Amino acid sequence: MQFQFLGTGNAAQVPCYGCRCPACERAMNVTTFRRGPCSAKIQVGEKNILIDAGHTNLTERFPVGTINTILLTHYHMDHVQGLFPLRWGKATPIPVIGPDDKEGCDDLFKHPGMLHFLPAPECFKPLYLLGIEITPVPLNHSKPTVGYFFNDGESSLAYLTDTLGLPEKTMDFLQQQRPDIVIIDCSSPPKPNPRNHNTLNEALDIIEHLAPQKGYLTHISHELDAFLLSANYPLPDNVIVAADNEKIDTTENMT
Ligand SMILES: [Zn+2]
Ligand SMILES: [Zn+2]
Ligand SMILES: [Zn+2]
């Protein structure tokens, strides 16, 4: 499995419009610190499985025929806004799989264009794409949201955003599966009474419970970047703050 982060930011992205904090200044000056809408891809040969569609230039990034399927975590705008221009394309329909959400986002279901929205798969029941077993798992968010557990027989990866903590069933399932890689929503620095998204506290707690070889933080706000810049906050050795375009070769993580 070749996994790549396409975006690692929260809805505001980094730099945040008009902000002059150290993280935003840094991202203005050095493009590698910028964070686009939280999304990723898994590549198998010439084909890609997209995880969310927040980038609005998917039509430029992915030539016709290179998107096998789009997996959606949920229908918040920062995760689906790229579907709005893509849907009016003239190409073979692209299957879209997402959580059971009758509303979707705006008029996507009413006017899907070349997007083929498939019935929502049942959680904890695997589906198979490009030889990869993919299991949707429920998450805790303000809209119906699922994470995905990927297993290609050699290595495994859990992609878990957007969420605050994990539902007990999801935690149990993942503890049994023991993913090699865990990618987790970590939207903000530690703060009291978080809502809808993990702070650093919940994210590190989940990584500790799942004990992967590597845990990656994503859906990152400029506040978290600024916090990590200013605070001498030691992260555990197996925890990595993800960056846009960063790749994970999951086979390297085999023990
Ligand atoms: Zn800022
Ligand atoms: Zn969301
Ligand atoms: Zn989000």
What's the order of the H and E elements?
Answer: EHEEHEHHEEEEEEHEHEHEE
Radius of gyration based on Cα positions: 17 Å
Mean pLDDT: 96
Secondary structure class reads: alpha/beta
What would you give as the CATH superfamily? Answer: Ribonuclease Z/Hydroxyacylglutathione hydrolase-like
Number of helices: 7
Overall outline:
globular
- The strands making up the biggest β-sheet line up spatially as 6-5-4-3-2-1-14
Helix content: 10-25%
Tally the beta strands: 14
Oligomeric composition of the shown chains: single chain
User: Spans with pLDDT under 50 lasting ≥5 residues?
Assistant: none
Strand content: 25-35%
- What is the CATH architecture term? 4-Layer Sandwich
The set of bound ligands, ions and cofactors reads: zinc ion
Count of folded domains? 1
Can you tell me the CATH class?
A: Alpha Beta
End-to-end distance: 16 Å
Largest sheet: number of strands, sense, barrel closure? 7 strands, mixed
CATH topology: Metallo-beta-lactamase, Chain A
Observed structural traits:
about 20% helix, alpha/beta, 7 helices, Metallo-beta-lactamase, Chain A, about 260 residues
Short description:
This protein is an alpha/beta fold. The chain is built from seven helices and 14 strands. Bound molecules: zinc ion (3 copies).
Write the layout of secondary structure elements.
Blueprint (H helix, E strand, L loop, with lengths): L1 E6 L14 H8 L9 E6 L2 E5 L6 H4 L5 E5 L5 H4 L2 H4 L7 E4 L17 E3 L9 E3 L2 E7 L7 E6 L4 E5 L7 H10 L3 E5 L14 H11 L3 E5 L3 H9 L8 E3 L5 E3 L6
Parallel strand pairs: 3-4, 4-5, 5-6, 10-11, 11-12, 12-13
Antiparallel strand pairs: 1-2, 1-14, 2-3, 7-8, 8-9, 9-10
One zinc ion binds next to helix 3.
